[in-house]
Design a protein that fits this description.
Layout (H helix, E strand, L loop, with lengths): L9 H20 L3 H16 L9 E3 L11 H9 L3 E9 L2 E6 L6 E3 L5 E3 L13 E4 L3 E2 L5 E2 L5 H6 L8 E4 L20 E3 L4 E2 L7
Length: about 200
């Protein structure tokens, strides 16, 4: 397995992230509509087999951009199982809050044009969430995640001492050998693609 790439200063890290972000987003956009549809079902099926989901009572999802892996199929399956759904909401600059989305009407177009919890939706505490499904631009086998650069999820996870398991949700095209990391970046516990389940060596099922 490739070793994690380190950089001597933050500016080099950010430059490396920007380059990888462009490449990974291009790889996502290259996935055609029919393939996206098939991937959504394959991803949902694989997530539902995770041991983290075995006794889950509540799962946090996200509203996908057009090029992102869409957890919509997974959401329908989770609701059929009686699992409660939470969605993030952009509450302020680089600030996400989680809210219960018990009906489709509780999720509306929000910041960046993405589906998010309505302002009136009840606040959900991370302590009440069994699993968090996390979007990303790129992931590596060590569990490192590259986002859009806003730090929203890193800041959300920094607000609590106890973290539910986090699952990176991505296409195979988004898995790279190594993601540049900063000290404040949070790893995910599991990465699920349509064909693989990746567990970083430092985590346990």
């Amino acid at each position: 397995m490739d070793t994690e790439i380190t950089y001597p200063d933050q500016s080099q890290i950010e430059r490396a992230k920007s380059v990888l972000r462009l490449k990974a987003r291009a790889a996502r956009r290259a996935v055609g509509p029919e393939q996206r549809h098939a991937y959504a079902y394959a991803l949902a099926e694989r997530v539902l087999t995770l041991p983290e989901l075995e006794h889950a009572s509540a799962v946090a999802l996200y509203g996908a951009a057009s090029e992102e892996a869409d957890p919509g199929v997974l959401e329908l399956a989770l609701r059929d199982l009686g699992i409660r759904i939470a969605y993030p909401r952009v509450a302020d600059y680089r600030v996400l809050t989680l809210h219960w989305v018990d009906t489709p009407a509780a999720a509306v177009p929000g910041a960046f044009g993405l589906r998010e919890a309505a302002e009136s939706a009840p606040v959900a505490d991370l302590a009440d969430i069994s699993v968090v499904i996390v979007p990303g631009v790129a992931f590596d086998p060590q569990g490192n995640r590259l986002g859009f650069g806003g730090g929203y999820y890193d800041n959300l996870f920094a607000t609590t001492e106890w973290m539910p398991p986090t699952v990176g949700f991505a296409y195979d095209e988004q898995i790279v050998d190594s993601v540049p990391v900063s000290p404040f970046d949070r790893r995910v516990d599991v990465i699920v693609t349509p064909t693989r389940t990746l567990r970083p060596p430092t985590t346990t099922p």
